[in-house]
Amino acid sequence: MMNTNGTFNVQRQYLSHWDNIYYHLVTMPWKYFFALVFLCYIALNLIFASAYWLIGLEQLNGLTPGDFWHNFSSVYFFSTQTLTTVGYGHISPAGFLANLVASLESFIGLLAFALISGLLYSRFSRPSAKIVFSENLLVAPYRDGLGVMFRMGNARKSELIETEVQIILAMNQTEPDGATTRRFYGVPLEISKVSFFALSWTVVHGIDEKSPLWGFSPQDLEDANAEFMVLVKGTDEANQQAVHTRHSYVASDMVWNARFQPVITRNTQGLPHVLVRQIGAYEMLS
Amino acid sequence: MMNTNGTFNVQRQYLSHWDNIYYHLVTMPWKYFFALVFLCYIALNLIFASAYWLIGLEQLNGLTPGDFWHNFSSVYFFSTQTLTTVGYGHISPAGFLANLVASLESFIGLLAFALISGLLYSRFSRPSAKIVFSENLLVAPYRDGLGVMFRMGNARKSELIETEVQIILAMNQTEPDGATTRRFYGVPLEISKVSFFALSWTVVHGIDEKSPLWGFSPQDLEDANAEFMVLVKGTDEANQQAVHTRHSYVASDMVWNARFQPVITRNTQGLPHVLVRQIGAYEMLS
Amino acid sequence: MMNTNGTFNVQRQYLSHWDNIYYHLVTMPWKYFFALVFLCYIALNLIFASAYWLIGLEQLNGLTPGDFWHNFSSVYFFSTQTLTTVGYGHISPAGFLANLVASLESFIGLLAFALISGLLYSRFSRPSAKIVFSENLLVAPYRDGLGVMFRMGNARKSELIETEVQIILAMNQTEPDGATTRRFYGVPLEISKVSFFALSWTVVHGIDEKSPLWGFSPQDLEDANAEFMVLVKGTDEANQQAVHTRHSYVASDMVWNARFQPVITRNTQGLPHVLVRQIGAYEMLS
Amino acid sequence: MMNTNGTFNVQRQYLSHWDNIYYHLVTMPWKYFFALVFLCYIALNLIFASAYWLIGLEQLNGLTPGDFWHNFSSVYFFSTQTLTTVGYGHISPAGFLANLVASLESFIGLLAFALISGLLYSRFSRPSAKIVFSENLLVAPYRDGLGVMFRMGNARKSELIETEVQIILAMNQTEPDGATTRRFYGVPLEISKVSFFALSWTVVHGIDEKSPLWGFSPQDLEDANAEFMVLVKGTDEANQQAVHTRHSYVASDMVWNARFQPVITRNTQGLPHVLVRQIGAYEMLS
After folding, report:
1. pLDDT tens, B46-55?
2. What is the reported pTM?
3. Chain D partners within 8 Å of A37 (Cβ)
4. What ipTM was reported for this prediction?
């Protein structure tokens, strides 16, 4: 149901594509965003250049007519100078229609750049944590029984405070009438909230009689199509905004009888140093 | 009291209309917003054009006087070039007064566009969920008795997480002294909070002895002018902001002895597919 | 301790006045804000005009020298054209130094207007409720005893949802050793939270044996310098942000044996209409 | 583990330095931010000036060629006029390539200033409290035993409301097997939440049998490398955003048998006046 990166494996019907425009503009990768902005810039200029062309070159002062290519590039560049409000003025609108279109174009140019300002800021300020999760869910001796655990680390410079973790387990279950339904269980955690998450955090669920996993073998979990949905919620300290991150583990991501290797060392100045790239490193228990 | 779309059916007295300007500028439909901005642009240009006209055409270099229409359109377009700071310069202020007004106009132009930038961003970033509600409230067998239920779906691409639903029931009640007063009741729900709301959600209230609806017939509810106010609260994942949505059902929206038809199918790739347009589809129970 | 409008009657020592610049720029009245921005515009132009003057008029092409006043106004207006980036170009920098200063000025101009954009948006988006409070705190028969109550109304078009009220009572109390200390008490309320606050809300504290006001006469409260600090917290629906408002009542604001007059009427279309201006209207009980 | 100013004494491995660019741009001191922006301005102009130079001076109208220095400064200043969109026009692009580069430069200029607008606003609106903490943690008689206390004051004009304090104590502890592990304890406080924090606040932990400090001598705490991590959370009233601040005290910051001197006086108008600079002033008890 959930992909490993926490997006949902679901398709929706939308009432109108306009509803999602802001969402797409804010979440698309930077390279596509800049490409789109640049294409809009070219397209707007082509539209206005065509308008000046249709109005006639004689309405633009300072433009010396030549062949088609020279003429069109001249009106195109006049359009860019108007849209960006650079307005050198060696070419300037003389007739009424050219003036009218130019006054509209510079207005639209300012509006468009105001819009881009707003979008750039939206993209910048979108709260986002970058939490690195171990690839595997380990099952290891814990207290008097077994525990299921994963490890996560903060891969950002900005601290994550008041961090909370919640795990929801989805499993197929055969009903008395033989039908298979998918059921959801909360998975209680040893510690589910920390005041600050400066280093790494190994999140542990102890398998006792109350655990939804009690008595399940690896094969049972595989058969039940078990999925652990991890929901992390915290406050990013750089902008003090709430951030949410998700991750998903399926039964085949589980490693039985293993433990995580240390991920915190001391650097040359004696400071604790978190090796985020090795967050998932584990070793088998004999 | 509440309209179906969740706005309140109430009129207020305002202390000053200035208090609501930001509210209107941010909530008005896009087409009115752009129309208003465009009208302000024209109005500002007319004001400044009149100022240049009153100061005299001889204070503007490069302007060749002609008939009234030519002259006024010349000062008007000079004004647009100054307000948008495009400043081609084929017309330029020469005298002291024209220079003074032009320096003021370009300053006001930049302020105005800064303001529009801010408003555009406010409009963009306004958190808003688009939740689709079933048109009807169904009453169907539920557990050992009856349940009242409605269904809702997320019509946005952006996930809604930590979603909570609350229902408040308003009913007229006859007091012992014969007077009719409107009373409000909380309506307990089977599940009132979900960690994520990826597909559709059927919100259910079981009618048991503790329910404010216990023992009411359809006619009783109609007579009592019953209104179910639904308040939904969640976190929009695109910008991690809280969003609130409301909906209202009245007694005549209730359908007794019916159940919702399935709204989730598999698309061609086998992904769950939510048919948001059919969120309200139901069938009568025999 | 608190003024009627909710600001604190306290003076603080500041470590640095720079810490409060953003606070002042965002909270000062609009007319002062615009006046300050305009003064900065004039000041910046005077500084740059002086720079061009010192560099020499011969470094500016298109400037025809005259008397001092003519010359200075010319460099001043050249400065305004550069700062706002309107750049007509009938005067343009020719020498190296003039070019250098002009390239700096247009850069500073853009930075300054970016800054003003940011401040304008900050001012716009600052969450603020406009709640109108009754001028008086009424004491009236309530249930089997007395109740203290005030009324408040929302004077904005934007709804206030999930509104919570808290009252803290401050009173002087004579200690056994004769010293007077100021003590703070929480005041329990009949209803302290509402899901939506669409009309008016009369907040009531019932005076029973557990009330900190139990057994106090009007004179006692006056003598104890009693102050009721009202803290209101809600979510503004226009931008879904939390808003906080405060109000203060002192003993002399209390009216004993009075009740509020109705504040909700029906308008011509039958809609409930809240008379916000009469939120404080009360009548004495016989 | 924590520095006195509340930053963590920890080093992390980052997956990509791009992840932290926004963090650095928003948190770097203002002088570095402006220096960086200015350097980017110069660098962009040098790049575009080189482009015009390579294209050839003959593609720029109005440029009178001279020696290298004159020529390069001419194209450099033409670039500044294009990037800032001031566009005087005494020099203007004539050939196709120069026009193309100029249309790109003015576009990039507008994007860059939109980006700076966004960053300036991010920097401005970043919620930040300025809480001043006493340098020392005092231990003084409290109730029937001892209490550990520190004092803090708000050094901003903006109120801090709904302020909560939490203390976490870290101590080395020798395990039965002789190994030393670092353990964390919550430290219960007399009052851990206040509705408003207008003056100063002395936060007190009473040392009773349940306290993790019970029975510890100053030397014991020193030996255990005790560290008190103070986490303060509140709502800044100027922008109604949550703010978090941290502070750290180690065993050597503790002063036994001392009490804080008064920090609140009356100013000349009789208003309470908080002497924030003397928040840490204490006196020894005999």
Report:
1. 999 999 999 9
2. 0.84
3. 111
4. 0.79
